[in-house]
Write a structure and sequence with these properties.
binds iron/sulfur cluster, mainly alpha, two-stranded antiparallel ribbon, 197 residues
């Protein structure tokens, strides 16, 4: 698959998920707290490389790949490099449109237990500050409310590119590998193929 086609396929999965989450939020009234970003402070967030290929292509087209690789090589913290803890406004993610699958799923999706039960995966802020809506949501999910299921979305990404989804990495490493993958693709594998700006 050509890089642009891979990115288009990943974005299609993201669009489908964003729509399903919007419907779920409408049915449950669960919402992120304005300006929160608490979930992004977790030091051990993991992601696959494919999740950040759209971001990596965006950087490549801006000729910013090397600059970001330098940044990623210079940091010691495992906290996501895209997080700006002091950012004003609605959210702390500096590249929100290019956030990964894990970022989109967290808060509004379920994992499947060994008894095939769907268990909502959400944050402590929602659990403690939206207690009524949270409790009702658990009941609604047990009663069959449609909720995005994490492993189903990861399987959709796997069907696009198995190698780039086979392993989870600390989020900054996943971003770094995604940038390297895109740069390698255009520099060595397909030097004559233009990346359409
Ligand atoms: S990519 Fe954005 S949303 Fe995802 S962990 Fe980093 S700061 Fe948070």
């Amino acid at each position: 698959m050509r890089m642009e086609e891979t990115v288009a396929a990943v974005n299609l999965v993201y669009e489908g998920l964003d729509k399903q989450i919007a419907t779920f939020q409408g049915a449950t009234s669960l919402q992120c707290k304005i300006g929160c970003g608490k979930c992004c402070f977790k030091p051990d967030i993991e992601a696959t490389v494919l999740e950040f290929i759209p971001f990596a292509l965006h950087l490549y087209k801006q000729n910013m790949g090397n600059q970001w690789l330098d940044k990623l090589d210079s940091i010691e913290s495992t906290m996501c490099l895209l997080l700006n803890p002091v950012r004003e406004g609605s959210g702390l993610c500096t590249e929100y449109p290019y956030r990964g699958l894990i970022c989109r799923l967290f808060g509004y999706s379920a994992r499947t237990t060994k008894y095939a039960k769907r268990e909502l995966v959400t944050c402590s802020v929602i659990k403690t500050e939206q207690t009524g809506a949270y409790a009702k949501t658990i009941v609604k999910i047990e009663a069959g409310l449609d909720v995005p299921v994490m492993n189903q979305y990861y399987m959709q990404l796997q069907s696009i590119d198995y190698n780039l989804t086979a392993k989870f990495y600390p989020i900054n490493q996943a971003i770094k590998l995604a940038i390297e993958t895109v740069m390698q693709y255009y520099t060595y594998e397909n030097p004559t193929e233009p990346a359409h700006v």
